[in-house]
Amino acid sequence: MFVINTIAELTKTVDKVKAQGKTVGLVPTMGALHEGHLSLIKRARKENDVVFVSIFVNPVQFNNQDDLRKYPRTLDRDVEFIGDYADYAFAPSVEEIFPVQPSEKYDFGPVEKVMEGAARPGHFNGVGIIVRRLLEWTRPDKAYFGEKDYQQIAVIRELVLQCNIQSEIVPCPIVREPNGLAMSSRNRRLTPEQFEKAANIHRILEESRKCVDVPQMKAFVEAEIAKIPEFQLDYFEIADDKTLQTVHALADADGVMGFVTVYVGEVRLIDNIRYK
Ligand code: PAF
Prior knowledge:
This protein is α/β, with parallel strands linked by helices. It folds into 2 domains: 2-172, 3-Layer(aba) Sandwich (Rossmann fold), CATH 3.40.50.620; 185-274, Pantoate--beta-alanine Ligase, Chain: A,domain 2 (2-Layer Sandwich), CATH 3.30.1300. The protein has helices at residues 7-19, 35-47, 65-70, 75-82, 94-97, 115-119, 123-138, 150-162, 192-207, 214-227, and strands at 2-4, 24-29, 50-55, 88-90, 142-146, 168-172, 231-240, 256-264, 267-274. The strands form 2 sheets. A 6-stranded parallel β-sheet has the order 1-4-3-2-5-6, with helices on both faces. The protein has a 3-stranded antiparallel β-sheet with strand order 7-8-9, with helices on one face. A hairpin with a 2-residue loop joins β8 (256-264) and β9 (267-274). α7 (123-138) crosses α8 (150-162). The protein is globular and about 55 Å long. The chain starts with a strand and ends with a strand. The model has no long low-confidence stretch (mean pLDDT 98). The site of pantoate (PAF) has 10 residues, from β2 and α7.
């Protein structure tokens, strides 16, 4: 695997690969790579001739500077971890990507106004800014994103539509730790005790399936989260899987999912579950 640090080298490499008629897969990441990322990269490997993985902690998608400062950065280990599966890792500096502060403003409509969009003002605008640039520089046939960040995928689908980007957006299932916790780079910030406790998030979501209707599911999840010391619920929403707007009954939409965000100590974790 080759490591590329500049946009000029990235676009030159993409031009060369495309001139050879090869298909390109892109897996955008912020590093601190884990088995969840590896599942995306392995899928990209199967479905494309050449695989690019971007590793960039994007400052403009953090609405909390402390979170940005504490975000794990493990580039050397990441490069080793994915070396057998990816062809190129694009690992630029912040100055390379943002020589000046970006000023683009997107409106992704209703899908960005709820949940993460409401809780983290500016977050999805920052995601849109970086993902658009990565897609335009890499011009992938397919780009792969994990469904833990389900709302992010909805926003990126809106981005590619609005910007006439031709890449196919491929959603990939959540990969879980043996204890059920959704894999996330943020899990590295948990103490071993918090890591075990955090498994309750998935357990509670799974148990909420037994509730007979949406108000009962909501009450159940909120009450169960409140019982766990060190847990603080940010939100639990039950929503249409396409519009991401709240539903009040399972019959209100063809697909219905639950979306939860919980602080475990200071670490903010998100997860989701499909009810139908
Ligand atoms: O999901 C992530 O890791 C990031 O939001 C992404 C898509 C790499 C953009 O920085």
